[in-house]
Amino acid sequence: MIPVNILAIRYLPGADPGLSQALGAPAGHPSLGLLTTDCDDATYIALDAATKAADVEVAYARSFYAGAANASTPNAGEVIGILAGVSPEAMRSGMDAAIGALQHLGFEESNGVPYLAHTVSSVGSFLSKEASVPLGSALAYLIAPPLEGMYAMDAALKAADVKLCKLYAPPSETNFGGGLVSGTQSACAAACAAFADAVKEVAQRPC
């Protein structure tokens, strides 16, 4: 697994109300936690985990263009995530949960081709909105380089009784592609396995 590197963290226990509102923080969530890492998709999964661990919401989450290898500054990386909490304690608890989740997340690699095929057994508020599925649903989070991603998405959707909820059509900000797929936990796991196998096939025999 390619580990995720946390690049910068800062806390705003009582953020400026105008800034909070502009960033999308819900009312009653005045405390913000800011995070940058070198892996956007793993960070989105970790931010979703935070919403299940504490009274926080994801106020803002955005990938940076071209990816971590082309970051414009040392601490920018590939993504910024901002959690909004009902209190400084809740916000820090949520951030701790996100940091803990990142220790177990990351891309796999086959013949130099990185990919992510991860089953989220029970989504929190962030990914439920992204995929337009109920809280607690199972999702397969599937990402790879553009051609591999689209080829493998087809394999994933045919491998099990799953539904495409959101397509990340290439190129994404980081020049990848993939999507979010819903179903039972076992169906999502089967979709992840098929996605990974398809990516490996292209990596080993591209033409």
Q: How would you sum up the global shape? A: globular
Strand tally, please? Answer: 10
The topology string of helices and strands comes to: EEHEHEEHEEHEHEEH
Question: How much of the residues is beta strand, in percent?
Answer: 25-35%
Structural class, judged by helices and strands?
alpha+beta
Number of helices: 6
Mean pLDDT reading? 97
Largest sheet: 6 strands, antiparallel
Helix content: 25-40%
Instruction: Record the strand order, biggest sheet.
Output: 1-6-7-8-10-9
Low-confidence stretches: none
Please give the structural blueprint.
Elements: E1 2-3, E2 6-12, H1 17-23, E3 31-37, H2 40-53, E4 56-63, E5 79-85, H3 88-102, E6 106-110, E7 113-120, H4 125-131, E8 138-144, H5 146-159, E9 163-168, E10 177-183, H6 185-204
Antiparallel strand pairs: 1-6, 2-3, 3-5, 4-5, 6-7, 7-8, 8-10, 9-10
Textual characterization of the structure:
The two termini are about 25 Å apart. The radius of gyration is 17 Å and the shape is globular. The chain has helices at about 15-25, 40-55, 90-100, 125-130, 145-160, 185-205, and strands at about 1-5, 5-10, 30-35, 55-65, 80-85, 105-110, 115-120, 140-145, 165-170, 175-185. It is α+β, with helices and mostly antiparallel strands. The strands form two sheets. It has a six-stranded antiparallel sheet with strand order 1-6-7-8-10-9. Strands 2-3-5-4 form a four-stranded antiparallel sheet, with helices on one face. The protein has six helices and ten strands; from the N terminus they run E-E-H-E-H-E-E-H-E-E-H-E-H-E-E-H. About 45% of the residues are buried. Helix content is about 35%, strand content about 30%.
